[in-house]
Each structure stands twice: as structure tokens, then as C-alpha cells.
Amino acid sequence: MTTYDRIGATYATTRRPDPRITAQIHAALGDAVSVINVGAGSGSYEPPQTVLAVEPSAVMIAQRPPDSAPAIQASAEAIPVEDDAADAVMALLTVHHWSDLESGIAELRRIARRRVVVFTWDQTVTRTFWLLDEYLPEVIAFDDERAVPVDRLAALLGGARVEEVPVPHDCTDGFGAAFWRRPEAYLDPTVRAGISMLAQSGEDAIRPGLARLADDLASGVWHERHADLLGRDTFDGGYRLVIADL
Ligand SMILES: C[S@@+](CC[C@H](N)C(=O)[O-])C[C@H]1O[C@@H](n2cnc3c(N)ncnc32)[C@H](O)[C@@H]1O
Predict the structure, then answer these.
(1) 2 lines ligand 1 (CB under 6 A)
(2) How far is 11 from 111, CA to CA, in rounded Å?
(3) How far is the CA of 171 from the centre of ligand 1 (A)?
(4) 2 has a pLDDT exceeding 80
């Protein structure tokens, strides 16, 4: 059983692709006429020219829309696909789950003809996000271990450019920092189930921090402390696109 066979059952409910992030990812794919999505999950952000999805979790594959590209159950570290199989390969919010990053990135470069697009986060920025910094330091420790430094990723890709992915205040993809202006959402167990840093840290570890958040929301302390956020439309939660031309 893979991690996402265990934690991925509600993914299609809370992790709907955000249209603004979709536009940025599709622009990063450039004029590719064929795309392979590795660590594809339920198929978020796949452009119409997607020819194949690669995903190890059967639970995630089962959540793919019926009309989406064919999926094979496989891991990034060993992709059963020929060299140069598609113009572009994308790997979105997945590299931090891989057991062997170097092999996985080498596989992306092998099966892509022209471009690789990786959506990830810069932990040096994300660890300052209020939820983690003020309430859940144990989750910072968890992500410090698994986060992939953007510089390392770029080096493994043989050089890359990096774009910030701003998080809209009403982001429909409920990833870690998506609810930066909607703090009550983090008190919802269904929302937390779709955020791997919270689901994998475990409820026991995060319960005290969430109780403090609930208190600060009820007393108005959170809103006082974060009044600056309430007037903003987007936020830098550390999310980045790493784009490599081969
Ligand atoms: C946070 S989800 C992202 C899914 C999708 N790319 C998206 O953006 O919604 C992470 C995905 O990576 C997959 N994954 C975990 N380990 C993997 C590996 N070694 N190779 C490829 N995918 C992996 C998980 O099963 C899960 O579907």
C-alpha cells in the first residue's frame, strides 16, 4: 500500500485544481504537443495534450475523471516508458514523496524530449507561513526532512528557471498554505486529510497547535495579529515552478 492509498481518499474533494495555477502551469509547458504527468494523482492540472499519467497509488488513479489520459501504475524512479516519449513532462507537488529523488529526476529527463516542469515549494519560505511558524513547529520539522531544496532540484535538472506561484486567497486546490486567509479551514479534518504535511505528521502531534489556533480565532487574536493578510489577494507560500529546457 502506498502513502496515498492511505491518505488520498478525499483528494478529489479538497484538492480541485485552481484555474490561476492551471494557467501558470500550462504556460510553463510552452508549445508541447504531448505531455506526461508523473506523480499524477487524480489528474489535477493535466492539459488536454496529456498522453499518459504515471502514478503509484491505485486509490489516486481511481479518482481520475473517466475521460482523462490513460494512467499506468508506476513510480517516478522507474518509469516503464521509452526515451523521449513526450515533448514535456510535468511532476506536480510530488517530488517530496519520492524514495529516490536522483533516479526520479533522471527518469523525467530521459522520457522528456524538450522540457520538464516541476511544481514544488521552497521550504525556506514555507517554514515562515503563519500556520507552521506560530502553531505547528512539529510540522516544520517534518517538512524540513522531506522538502527538496529548489537549488538541488534545478541542479539535478541540469539548470532551470524558477517562478513563484502566488496562492490566491480563494485557492480551490487545498494544499498546505492554500487557506492562508481562511484560517478556520485548518480546523476541518477533511481539509487536513488532503494536506500531506498535516496528515502524515499525525493528529496527536498537531492537536495542541490546532487547539491554540481555535482559541486565537475565537478570541480575535489571530485576526488582530494578521490584519495585514485580510486585505491581500495573493500570498507567497513558497510554491515554485522549476522549469528546465533539455
Ligand atoms: C500531493 S499528490 C499530487 C498529485 C497531483 N500531481 C496534483 O498536483 O494534484 C502527490 C502524488 O505523488 C504520488 N507519489 C508518491 N510517491 C511517488 C513516486 N515515487 N513516484 C511517483 N509518484 C509518487 C502520490 O501517490 C500522489 O498521488
Answers:
(1) yes
(2) 27
(3) 20
(4) yes
Task: Kindly report the length of the chain.
Answer: 246
Question: Tens digit of pLDDT for each residue in 118-174?
Answer: 999 999 999 999 999 999 999 999 999 999 999 999 999 999 999 999 999 999 999
Give me the CATH number covering residue 145. Answer: 3.40.50.150
Confidence of residue 3 (pLDDT cuts 50, 70, 90): confident
In this predicted model, what pLDDT tens digit does every residue of 42-55 receive, in sequence order? 999 999 999 999 99
**Based on the structure, what is the number of domains in the chain?**
1
Closest CA to 238 of 142, 123, 149, 69: 123
CA-99 nearest atom, ligand 1: 19
Range of the domain at 227: 3-245
Model-wide pTM > 0.85: yes
- Whether residue 57 has its Cβ less than 6 Å from ligand 1: yes
Q: Is 60 in the pocket of ligand 1 (CB under 6 A)?
A: yes
